[in-house]
Amino acid sequence: xxxxxxxxxxxxxxxxxxxxxxxxxxxxxxxxxxxxxxxxxxxxxxxxxxxxxxxxxxxxxxxxxxxxxxxxxxxxxxxxxxxxxxxxxxxxxxxxxxxxxxxxxxxxxxxxxxxxxxxxxxxxxxxxxxxxxxxxxxxxxxxxxxxxxxxxxxxxxxxxxxxxxxxxxx
Length: 170
Description:
Layout: H1 11-33, H2 37-48, H3 54-61, H4 65-77, E1 81-85, E2 93-97, H5 99-120, H6 126-151
Antiparallel strand pairs: 1-2
């Protein structure tokens, strides 16, 4: 057999459909928060960590440090994050999500997370959930590798408007 499945769902189509639903949800969150999708991704990162540095955000988002500074200015003005001096290295800055933003974000996402916990997770055994988590983790790793590969390709001369700007070789 050459890697083809004899039966079962077309996993590629299912994953693509799932990704489209995630993208739609993220777009609606961004709309409700009054931010663009890159700003939303930054805020998601901040919700996952207690604090981080602008350079870490630059790397994770594939943005220049100047673009990150402009983004942080926007998000700070909206009251979604704070910047403060690093406690031991005054040359560095620490970025944190504000409690008000955290509360608002979880208020918007709590119904979804509740439905996942109530309607989806009980359908699977712990072993099945381990398998699903393994698949998603490995898929994420491959996706991140290819995101980095694409970041290294020079962007075409086509002008872009809004959102994330190219950061690859110029």
